[in-house]
Design goal:
mainly alpha, 7 helices
């Protein structure tokens, strides 16, 4: 290896090690609507209709999130929705899980600590509450 290439790698390694550690973004201050817009709208659409800009690229259209309660006899299944968002429940008719496991993503965003788990749960609850507010009456 040439001396200049060796020097380049040395500088690169030093830069990586010397870079300040940045704290991941705290999502607990986001409202449910803000979390939805940031993490869900690209697939499920701005209004939850399943018509987001990337929806046409999936095998199956993302579900209309405004009709969750209607599909469950008029009751909004908050616990089921929470388990879908955090990855504990897979929606079997969809085959392979195409939706990201947001619970894992939220925790990974902040670090795997008890506080991060609590903030992830708060973010998921905010999303569940927001989805409840979208339900067509």
């Amino acid at each position: 290896m040439s001396r200049s290439l060796s020097s380049f790698f040395g500088v690169l390694v030093f830069a990586c090690l010397a870079a300040p550690q940045t704290r991941a973004e705290d999502l607990s201050g986001y409202s449910g609507a803000q979390l939805y817009e940031r993490f869900c709208a690209s697939c499920h659409g701005a209004t939850g209709a399943g018509d987001g800009p990337v929806a046409p690229f999936f095998r199956l259209k993302p579900p209309d999130l405004r009709r969750i309660a209607r599909r469950h006899g008029g009751e909004f299944p908050a616990d089921k929705i929470r388990r879908i968002i955090d990855g504990r429940t897979n929606v079997l008719p969809h085959g392979a899980r195409e939706m990201p496991v947001w619970g894992f993503e939220f925790i990974a965003n902040e670090g795997d600590t008890p506080e991060a788990h609590q903030r992830a749960e708060q973010a998921i609850q905010s999303l569940v509450d927001y989805l409840r507010s979208l339900q067509a009456h």
